[in-house]
Amino acid sequence: MLENINYRGDYFQITLSVPAISQEVQQGQFAHLLLPDTEGILLRRPFSIYDADADKGTISIIYKRVGKGTDLLAEQVPGREIDVLGPLGTGFPAPKPGQKVLIVAGGYGCAATYLIAKRFDNDGVCMIGGRSAGDVLLDDRFAATGQDVQISTDDGSAGHQGLVTELLTAELDKLGDNDDAVVYSCGPNPMLKAVSNICVPRGVETYVSLDEHMCCGVGACFTCVVKIKADNDDGWEFIRSCKDGPVFDATTVVWD
Ligand SMILES: Cc1cc2nc3c(=O)[nH]c(=O)nc-3n(C[C@H](O)[C@H](O)[C@H](O)COP(=O)(O)OP(=O)(O)OC[C@H]3O[C@@H](n4cnc5c(N)ncnc54)[C@H](O)[C@@H]3O)c2cc1C
Ligand code: FES
Question: Which CATH topology does 100-209 take?
Answer without folding.
Answer: Rossmann fold (3.40.50)
